């Protein structure tokens, strides 16, 4: 059995304990149904789409030319740099960083995580204090459009999901220009080097 608790030290209250990591994404509508939508930081130079379903916490830095399309939740102290695109059903928790030209879609970025330079994060869960190098990509759709499976300890597990990116455990690192295929699982504290080797 592979559980959320195997990858993340802190499980938000809206998540069902004992569920599989990728099932977290299916629980996002539950989270969004309880959000009191407010914008508590300066966003005067950002483009907000479906703004009535956007929450932005205090002390955030939202640089010019950022696009945010709700429903989106952004915690406190988050930095979103110029040219970033934050798409629907994304949760970005406190003190995370989304860099220039990075795109985050239908994903969770936990506290202190960084997708700071030209990254794509789709249908993924990024743990606390994870760092993604420049141009690292978490792909979320198979070329043949078949449901995404995951492989853990040599065992293939069917998720039934047409879109699933990566599960990055707490304090893991993804090197520059690494492409992670749909359904990639990275254990906590693991490093994925640019040439594709995995350090544990």
Structure, explained:
The chain is mostly beta strands and 200 residues long. The chain has one domain (4-199): Hexapeptide repeat proteins (UDP N-Acetylglucosamine Acyltransferase, domain 1), CATH 2.160.10. It has helices at residues 23-26, 28-33, and strands at residues 47-49, 54-56, 61-62, 67-69, 72-74, 79-80, 85-86, 90-92, 97-100, 103-105, 108-109, 114-117, 120-122, 125-126, 131-132, 137-138, 148-152, 155-161, 166-168, 173-174, 179-180, 184-186, 191-192, 198-199. A hairpin with a 5-residue loop joins strand 23 (191-192) and strand 24 (198-199). The longest helix has 6 residues, at 28-33. The radius of gyration is 16 Å and the shape is globular. The model has no long low-confidence stretch (mean pLDDT 94).
Q: Which structural class do the helices and strands define?
A: mainly beta
What is the CATH architecture annotation? 3 Solenoid
The averaged pLDDT comes out at: 94
Largest sheet strand order: 3-6-9-12-15-20-23-24
The best one-word shape is globular
CATH topology: UDP N-Acetylglucosamine Acyltransferase, domain 1
Look at the structure and name the CATH superfamily. Answer: Hexapeptide repeat proteins
Order of helices and strands: HHEEEEEEEEEEEEEEEEEEEEEEEE
| Radius of gyration based on Cα positions | 16 Å
Task: Give a count of the beta strands, DSSP E runs of length 2 or more.
Answer: 24
Characterize the biggest β-sheet.
8 strands, mixed
What is the strand content?
A: 25-35%
């Amino acid at each position: 059995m592979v559980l959320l608790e195997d990858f993340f030290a802190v499980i938000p209250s809206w998540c069902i304990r004992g569920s599989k990591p990728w099932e977290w994404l299916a629980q996002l509508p539950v989270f969004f149904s309880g959000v009191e939508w407010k914008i508590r930081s300066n966003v005067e130079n950002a483009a907000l789409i479906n703004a009535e379903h956007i929450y932005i916490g205090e002390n955030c830095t939202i640089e010019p030319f950022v696009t945010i399309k709700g429903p989106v939740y952004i915690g406190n102290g988050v930095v979103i740099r110029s040219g970033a695109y934050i798409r629907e059903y994304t949760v970005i928790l406190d003190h995370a960083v989304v860099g220039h030209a990075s795109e985050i879609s239908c994903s969770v970025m936990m506290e202190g995580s960084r997708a700071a330079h030209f990254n794509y994060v789709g249908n993924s869960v990024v743990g606390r204090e994870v760092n993604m190098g420049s141009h690292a990509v978490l792909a979320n759709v198979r070329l043949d459009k078949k449901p995404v499976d995951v492989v853990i300890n040599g065992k293939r597990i069917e998720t039934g999901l047409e879109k699933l990116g990566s599960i990055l455990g707490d304090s893991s690192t993804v090197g520059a220009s690494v492409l992670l295929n749909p359904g990639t699982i990275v254990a906590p504290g693991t490093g994925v080097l640019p040439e594709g080797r995995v350090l544990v």
